[in-house]
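sanity check both lines:
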Amino acid sequence: MVSGETGLPASFDLETGRNVQWIAQLGTETHGMPIIAGGRVFIGTNNGEPRDPTQTGDCGVLMCFDEKDGRFLWQHAWPKRAEDPYFDWPKTGMSSPVTVEGDRAYVVNNRGEVVCLDTRGAGEGIASKVHWTFDLSSGAGIWSHDGAHSSILIRGEHLYLNTGTGVDNSHRVIRTPDAPSLVVLDKASGRLLAREKEGIAPKIFHCTWSSPALGEVDGRPAIFFAAGDGIVRAFEPLESMPPEGTVATLRKVWQFDPDPTAPKEQVHRFTSNRQIGPSNIYGMPVLLGKRLFVAGGGDVFWGKNEAWLKCVDTSKPGDVTAAGPLWSYALDRHTLSTPAVHNGLVFVSDTSRNVHCVDAETGAAVWVHPTKGDYWASPLVADGKVYIGSRKGDFWIFAASREKKVLATVDFKRPISATPIAANGVLYVATMTQLYALREGVELNGAKP
C-alpha cells in the first residue's frame, strides 16, 4: 500500500480532462485493483459491456490495456459457475488482481481456478494463451463462496495463495471441514505442493478473504496469513519440491489472535449477530521490520459491529497472543482495509466513512477525517499523498503527514471498490465501470466520468 512513485497529481478534473491521460471502459462491476507490468494494464471486471461478441453471458473477465494510451489489447473471459450463485456471485465479475512475472500472469479467476496466462495475448482482442489451470475445488477440496478474491504471492518457484474456502449458501455450514485455507502451487506446472493443516476450516465464520504476505520471524523468512477464523499465522516457506504425488504440510512458526476473547467454536451461532461474535480479517497483514500491522473485526456482512487496527511483535516464534501485542487502535463498525504504513504513520479506512491516521510507534490517533462513503478500498501512500476512493464515488487526496490536510476531493459519480495504484508516474483509479489513468501535466479534452 506504499509506492515510491513521484510526480503524481495532487488534484485532477474529470470534467475538463486536466491531469487525465486516458479513460478505458470496463464492465459494469469492477472490484479488484489494476496491475501495471511490461507496458500493460491488467484488471478484472464483469461482462456487463461485452467486448467479444462470442462471450455475451455473465462472465468474469480479465482485461488488458496498453499502458500508454489505454487502448484495449485483449481479454480472457470465464463463464460464471451455475451450480449455486454463492459459489460465484452473479454480475460481480472477477475480483482477484493478477501477479505478473515476466511474460506470465498468475490469477485466481471467478470460478476458483488458479490460472497461468501469457501476458502477450494471442492477437488483437483475442484471449491470451493459458499455460495451466488448477481448480481449487476439485484439486484442493475447498468450498468457494461469493467468488474468488485472492492475491498470489510468488517466492522463488512457488505460488502462495488463499483458497477462498468458506460457508455454504446458508451461511451457517462448512461443507468441507478439511479444506485448506492456504496452499502452495508449483509456478511452472500448477501442481499442488503444500497446504496448511491447522484445522482452520470449521472455524471460518464467513470466508477466507485475506492474502498471504512475506516477512520474518526470528530473522527467518515466513509466510504470514490471516485466515477466516480471524487468527494470523506464519509458516515456514517451502524450500524443496515434495515427491511426486505427495502434498507437504506447512509448518507453523508463529501465531497471533487479535481477538482472543471472541468465540472460537460453533461460530455460526453468531451469524447476523451485530453485538457478539468472532472476528474476521479482509485486508492483508503488513510487515515492516519486526512489526506486523493488521486491521480486522466483525464480518462486514454478518458479524458484530467492531473493528480495530493492531500492531504486534514478530521477532520471536510461537504463540504471541499474550506477549506480542504492542498496541491496539479502535476503528468504527467494520474494516476491509489493508493498512498503509509510511514514515511513522499508519493510514487505514473503515466502513463508517472515516480515514484514520495513527502513530505507528504508539497506536495513538493522529487524525481522523469523516468522508461521504463507506470504504472497501485501502489507502495508497505515494509521493507524499494518501489516495483513497469510497463506495459512494468520492475520491480523497490527503497529505501523508501528521497535519491533516485535504489536498483534493473528486466525485467519480460511480462506486469505487478498488484500491488505487501508482506506476511510472501515473495514478490509476478504477470505478465500477471505468479505469482512469491520471498524470500530472496532461489534458484529455472532453473527458467525462
